[in-house]
Amino acid sequence: MATAKKIAVFVIVIFVTWTIIATPKRAAGLVQIGFEGISTAAHSVGEFMTQLVS
Questions:
Q1: Is the pTM of this model over 0.85?
Q2: pLDDT in tens, 9-43
Q3: Are 49 and 41 in contact (CB under 8 A)?
Q4: R_g of the chain, CA atoms, integer Å
């Protein structure tokens, strides 16, 4: 099981590295989308907590 996990992590790291090198603009766009999603989720949780307290 540990070997399979190490292989999976290795494959993911290689894929991410290849994506960044091959298409840096697309990779930057994907990172931006990810951070926007996290920001939106945090804002929504904050708004929910505000409504819950009020």
A1: no
A2: 999 999 989 988 999 898 899 889 999 999 999 99
A3: no
A4: 18
- At which residue do the structure tokens 């505000």 appear? 50
* CA 10 to each of CA 23, 38, 51: distance values in angstroms, whole numbers, following the listed order: 20, 25, 44
- Confidence check: pLDDT of 1 > 80: no
| Helix extents (H) in 1-54 | 2-22, 24-53
Structure tokens at 30: 């994907």
DSSP 54: -
Cα gap 27→48, rounded to integer Å: 32
Residue type, 23: T
Q: What is the chain's length?
A: 54
